[in-house]
Amino acid sequence: MQYQTVILGAGAAGMMCAAHAGGDVLVVDHAKNPGEKIRISGGGRCNFTNMYASAENYLSGNPHFCKSAMARYTQWDFVELVDRHGIAWHEKTLGQLFCDGSAKQIVAMLVQELKQAGADLWLETSVQSVTQTPDGFDLSLVTGGKAVKVACRNLVLATGGKSIPKMGATGLAYDLARQFDLPLIDTRAGLVPFTFAEDRFKPLAGVALPARLSNQRKSFDEALLFTHRGLSGPSVLQLSSYWHEGEEIMVNLIPDGTLYEKLRSQRQASGRKALTTELAKHLPARLVDHLTPQLKISGRLADHSDAALQELCDALSSWDLKPSGTEGYRTAEVTLGGISTDALSSKTMEAKTQPGLYAIGEAVDVTGWLGGFNFQWAWASGFAAGTAIAQG
């Protein structure tokens, strides 16, 4: 069978590429359904983009690489597409845009777009081998239990990274990149919870509060959640992408900086009450109980001088912790690293040394923050490759 273009991966980037690649396109995926990571994203409502998406929200060996694609297909272009399909949406926090209904609406929209563009979609199809030919590429596939040979001029790697293997994630894009001599940046789990030895925070599981998490590279002010295994929540997931094994992190439990003045005021009105009781008005009571021994919190509020209260606030704003690791690809929302941007054109996503070979989405060394940024990269990079293919 002959196609102009074969796209490996029916995820966000792959389907977006198929919708713009000009027809005569085959999209292949080993999953039973397209867009499985879209379906489970955002608690089932899909945080499909972010109002404030820009290059500053991405990690990459080349921080400028994503600018070209994202300038030509912006968050507002995708919002216009969502509106055109009559999908209701809302802003949640920090510019994060979600469907009012179901993430399945985004999947259905993309499938409709690619089919209207004339693309074929083969699901439950595995890739046995890919070989280069003078005219492009030959693929050996197995679909419906039958072996099929497909030839194409263009091949697009859109199979994502290693995150959430239970959803079918594999390293296929990286294997093919190696086969065609495209350099790779070491991969690791990103947007992933931290773990701590000996169930350190198990007694606090379920406790959540606003916090600032920092290391020497980055700082994020968002919610912190204690879990049976360690720390999670948006601030943790964000910082995890900037963390390397063995490093310490700093947790500020009072990021708004007003606790000292509040405790001084309470000392005037409720000085006879226990400091722990008054502190629990500002922090979760279970967290106060947990910190009481290590911070030596005791006595009545009236017994504590300004200096003592300041010392307590300083401790609460600079809690140094060393994670033992992360939960890894099992729960990671994204994969950091991947196919090096040095190997690709930032305008077309085509490999510089392999004409007709493209890489898009999570397979590439471009990783966004939590909050719709990774989907926006999928839309932008898929659009860049698709339009380049269509223009021939």
Structure description:
It is a single chain. With 392 residues, the protein is an alpha+beta fold. Helix content is 30%, strand content 26%. The strands form 5 sheets. Strands 1, 2, 7, 8, 9, 10 and 20 form a 7-stranded mixed sheet that branches. A hairpin with a 4-residue loop joins strand 13 (208-214) and strand 14 (219-226). Helix 3 (66-72) crosses helix 12 (373-390). The radius of gyration is 25 Å and the shape is elongated. The model has no long low-confidence stretch (mean pLDDT 97).
Main attributes of the structure:
single chain; alpha+beta; 7-stranded mixed sheet; 7-stranded antiparallel sheet; 12 helices
Q: How far do the termini sit from each other?
A: 20 Å
Strand segment tally: 21
pLDDT < 50 stretches: none
Helix content: 25-40%
User: Count of DSSP helices?
Assistant: 12
The chain-level mean pLDDT equals: 97
- Provide the gyration radius in Å: 25 Å
Q: How is this fold's topology laid out?
A:
Blueprint: E1 2-8, H1 12-20, E2 25-28, H2 36-40, E3 47-50, E4 58-59, H3 66-72, H4 75-84, E5 89-91, E6 96-99, H5 104-116, E7 120-122, E8 125-133, E9 136-143, E10 146-157, H6 172-179, E11 184-190, E12 194-195, E13 208-214, E14 219-226, E15 230-232, H7 234-240, E16 249-252, H8 259-270, H9 275-279, H10 285-295, H11 306-316, E17 319-321, E18 325-326, E19 334-339, E20 357-359, E21 367-368, H12 373-390
Parallel strand pairs: 1-2, 1-10, 2-7, 10-20
Antiparallel strand pairs: 3-6, 4-21, 5-6, 8-9, 9-10, 11-19, 12-15, 12-18, 13-14, 13-16, 14-15, 16-17
